[in-house]
Amino acid sequence: MKYDIDSLLRDKNLRSVEIDCLLDEPPPETAGGLGFDSAGAAALRGTLRLDGELPALRVMASMPYAARCARCDAEIKGTLEALVEGPVVDVNSLEDKLSDDYITTEGGILDLSLIAAQALILAAPSKLLCDEGCLGLCPQCGADLNRGKCVCPPKATDPRLAALDRFFDK
Ligand SMILES: [Zn+2]
Ligand SMILES: [Zn+2]
Questions:
Q1: Cα torsion angle, 157, 162, 168, 169, sign
Q2: Whole-structure pTM value
Q3: Which residues, at least 6 apart from 64, have a Cβ–Cβ distance to it below 8 Å?
Q4: Ramachandran area for residue 150 (φ above 0: left; ψ -120 to 50: alpha; else beta)
Q5: Are residues 85 and 156 in the same domain?
Q6: Domain encompassing residue 143
Q7: Which of 57, 65, 83, 154 has the smallest number of CB atoms closer than 10 Å to its CB?
């Protein structure tokens, strides 16, 4: 989804543009690279205001995903959301091309698909958990500790480790 900002600005009566679109594809790299099993099409909703000194974009990007909990392997279904907000300038008029104070267009074209992809990648958690307090799996028997305690003793019974335990207890 791309907007030609220059042509929008030519219409002096146009004060804002409502953005409500579904990007056909999930943004590239968002599925595999972020540890998702799958990702759905990303939606973008918000406004592009044209009546200020600089055009200003405010959109919420959201993308449904399915993944597995990093601790207990349970299936997680969720929606990743990222707010993109800021003044819009053309990348060629910026001295610091890597400045993140601005949302950039190139040749007057605002590429919303790219903007959504970048924002979603930044917003993705480094570790996907079914719950912050997920107890994970027992390292010994593999039982899901969220469903209750397993019968494994709390500490390893390996005699060498038991000796170490005694050593550290002193
Ligand atoms: Zn979990
Ligand atoms: Zn166990």
A1: positive
A2: 0.74
A3: 39, 40, 77, 78, 79
A4: beta
A5: no
A6: 137-170
A7: 154
Q: How many whole angstroms from 55 Cα to the centroid of ligand 1?
A: 43
Average pLDDT score, the chain: 85
Q: Which ligand is nearest to the CA of 151?
A: 2
Q: Which ligand sits closest to the CA of 149? A: 2
pLDDT at position 79 is: 93
Query: Which pLDDT belongs to residue 46?
Result: 97
Angle at 104 between CA 9 and CA 82, to 5 degrees: 110
Give me the number of domains the chain comprises: 2
State pLDDT tens for residues 118-156.
888 888 888 889 999 999 999 999 999 999 999 988 765
> Residue 157: nearest ligand to its CA?
2
